[in-house]
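Sample 1 of the test manifest.
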Amino acid sequence: MSLLIDSVSKRFGDVQALQDVSLEIKPGEVFGFLGANGAGKTTAMRIVLDIIRPDSGTVTWDGKLNTELPRETWGYLPEERGLYAKMNVLEQLVFFAKLHGVRGRAAEHETREWLDRFRIPEYADRRAEQLSKGNQQKIQFIAAILHDPQVLLMDEPFTGLDPVNVALLKEAFLEMKDRGKTLIFSTHQMETVEELCESIAILDRGIVVVGGSVREVRRSTGRQMVRLAVDGEPELAWLGTLDGVRVTRRGQDYTEAEVAPGHDPGSVLRAALSRGCEVRHFEMADPSLEQIFIEHVGQIDTSERTLAPKAAHP
Amino acid sequence: MKGWRTLFPNAWYIAVREFRSRARSRSFVLGTVLLALIAFGATQLPVLVDFASGSSQTRVEVVAQASGLPSDAQTVLDQALNGTPAAGSSEHKSYILTWLPADELAAAQGDLEAGKFDALLIIGRDAASHDLSFTLRTDMASDGRAVQAIGSAVDSLAIEDRLARAGTSTAAVLAPVAWAVLPANSSGAGAANSLNEQVSSSLLSTGLIVLIFMAIITYGMWVAMSVAEEKGSRVMELMLNATTPLQMLAGKVIGNGAAGLTQYGIVLAAIVGGLLAQGPIHEAVVGSSTDTQFGGLDPTVLVAFVVLFVLGFLLYSLLYAALGSLVSRQEDVQSATSPLMVLIMAGYFMSVIGLQAIDEPWVKIASYVPFFSPYLMLARVSAGHVELWEFGLSVLLLAISIVVALFLAARIYSAGVLLYGQRLSLREVLKAARVSR
């Protein structure tokens, strides 16, 4: 019982949006799609949701094809946020819940509970257009989960929220996980991914460049990172001369270096001690997701390169 | 397309939402109230006309000094001025005649000068020619309508007098001659159409065709606007996961159609209510009652109208929805739907021309063509020249075309709603439609 994306390819005109993408997302897992704008995250989600059909490949959940599954299997928070501007909040949430097969009375009860949880019960009777962007986003999140979906797909759920609301949303997120839901979201905020995700896939121009558990991905390069701080010697000029060691960051607080595969990171500490340095701080770690991302994709490109559906007409 | 199996209840929820948001909008409420008021007001026009003419009643006192007036002199003068009254109606009169004996001339003159009457008509007899002679005393314009009317009325009376003296009467002189009009077939069975019937049936069918035409243009546009609005505000993205394109299409067409029918129903109710209220209002305002004219609505024509109205609206609004899904902003809806407008106008004008040539082959053919049949079949039905199977065939073809349009529209729609761009050609959309759900 897991979500299997099997060799999915999708082309929009001249643009290969997804190429032979295969992923396995375990039930109850929090999964992150990483990638620059236009890498194919939205397209992948829409294919899972059966909003668009792939050119080839299949998607199955619990062994059943997504084209055969009822729509209420999925909860979806789209990247493009929108509500019915003139409709009041309670009415439209109940409307969306009913579309997913929730009975009217239960839908209203659930809606009020979630509005309370997000500390906006007084918005129930307001029209959507009277709400701030952040609050509209919370309403949309509620719309995505009211029908208690098994799999929740969220496209950039944290963008445009202030820190308080990000915290609220993360809380709701973790509660959905506690309820046994499978959570899939896309983002390019690496801290959020490291904080929440158990597995990830990094997409670049429609290709999965690396995927798996966060641990595996961080170890995938075989490199290790060391952080070293020595009293009275901030430069540590000798560090770069060691075999298989490359300095990646020099700071007043510590110096960071990368140790090539097959070399022992411990040798850095031994070298420092043998030089008689007063070592204040020494740390060995896997590379951060951000480093791996940059390594695979290049600089995080925040400029618009959306190819998802727009690219259908070159 | 799995949407078939699960069209309801989602299509129903969407229809209800569409109906509510449409019916609550200020433009709908204002538009409906305004249209109903105009419709009601229009039905009261006859009352207004009668009221306006009723206020210019002319009171005439008549003093007959001549001896030997025809026995029906009073009736002749009255009918010459006020026309022949319809049987059983107590229609109000434009001229009120008050006959006084010859010896009250002085009193009559006093009343005239006191302004109690508008005119004093004195009837005498010329001693030489024995003809009647008339004198009118009045301050009304001598070439005005009232004076002229009285002038020609006294002519009638003088002629009646001459005929009476000659031993006959106008009624005898003008008694009808034997004269019959029969249908062309040799057996002479059935009754010939009266001009009145022909005119009123053509007026009626023009009216019904205009009703269909207006409904399709107005309410079809509502459907297109509502699709474009959903796309523009990006609610579409949420809807896409919650429903299927087929459910959305059906819901939108039903919801907006129901809102449109509601508006139409209210306006029609205002018209019927206005016609029913015509009598009482007439009585209250003018002081006499009048018969309500319903224009001879044939139940057959009404049934055909409802069937063709609903089917025609369905066909066109499905296409409106499909075209509405191609634009990203509401402002572009007008231009995107213009091809449809051409089609609708073509059907309308064909039916207007066709009404004058209802038995031409091209009218018959066009009355089976789905896009034109709502108009032209209705024109033929109201002209009464249609066999039942002809009507049935036309409706069947229309129904088939609706099913085809539903699938085509769902295809275009499911691709169109995902494509955001400045201008989308139909070819691009169809290409995209092949691979979308």
